[in-house]
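Q: How would the structure tokens look for this protein?
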Amino acid sequence: MPGPDFPAASTGTDWLPASRTINRRGLRLIAGVTAVAVLGLVFYAGDAANAFGDSADKQTPSHPAAGWQPPRAALTGSAQPGAKTSAFGQIILPDLLIVTPTGLTPQQIASLRKINRVRHVITFDGARISVGGQQLNVIGVNPATFRPWVPLQTASNQSFWTALSSGDFVAAASAATAHGLIPGDDYQFVGASSQTLKYGLAAKLGLTGVDLLVNEATSAQLGLVRQVAGLISAPGVSLATLKAQVTAVLGSSVQIVVLRSQLPTATVPTGTVPTNYIQLFKASAAEYCPGLSWTVLAAIGQIESNDGQNMGPSSAGALGPMQFMPATWASWGTDGFGQTGPPNVMNPYDAVPSAARLLCADGAAAGGKSLYNAIFDYNHADWYVNEVLSLAAEYAANYP
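A: Here is the predicted structure in token form.
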């Protein structure tokens, strides 16, 4: 999916046009980088697939109990044991990224917040500027308030946010790869002024078209356009309705990028199956494990694959939106919601019901300690259970 066109940075007397040769002595940038598009940017839609990757295999107890066997789900355990959601308080699931030509006014921001069922709105600076001689989309954010809007593993990465807060710039994982950014090296940013910034590290952001992040102080120095972009979270509203309401507030010049995870086209008649992941989690819990809160399935889906955006295989060989190991899938794979043929681990209409069945067989519907044990069986680690339950509470609060 292509990203939005960010406006150029404010043009002061010391602004350097993108075509001007920049002295990059001591600065690093990959030589053969892809040329920028006519309207200014090469977008990295691959970073919209902002799942957690293969950062860890399944965690097993240091001293397993007698007779202990590997958990049947045998997932990758994507989140690291040290990555705790408590480090930042909450997760907000963005539905839309918006970019305006000249920046959002206070009145427009207030109107966005008043749209029916909009729960959260955040705005930030941004511009297309020269970085090491290449035109990139840079946004300027408050790390503390921006952090809940990114994928769980990124939000849990304290080193990423410490670097950003300290004045380094950080990157979307796809942009860092495309441009060969080297952690610890200096790069020249040229907007309203020229700043030499150290590159910290990269992570998956899930924000199509956003390449680099700087903090608010650096944003002001670079002359990024104030409040040019924003993220909106509106649980329960159809995307068509939400986009129409946002356009009514901001006008036809606003650029809107959909970030809400969508299901692939179903192979059964329209109207008979869920059309987005929230609906799928709710329907799967109700049909395949009555008594299990759908929020548990939602939390597992978010942690394991960011709702189907990282389908694997993981480093351990797990596959699909719920990250089943092949042997586990052979036992628990289920055709759900009218699907036909052999159960397909890559198909969310099969994978999510299968996860519900597996959890139910372990007693998840009973709640309490039984729920804890069932999640523990899904990924054999206490930290994993705590992350699932914490994120499930966020879903319950934001998606009533």
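Confidence is low (pLDDT under 50) at residues 11-87.

DSSP finds 13 helices and nine strands in the chain.

Upvote if useful.
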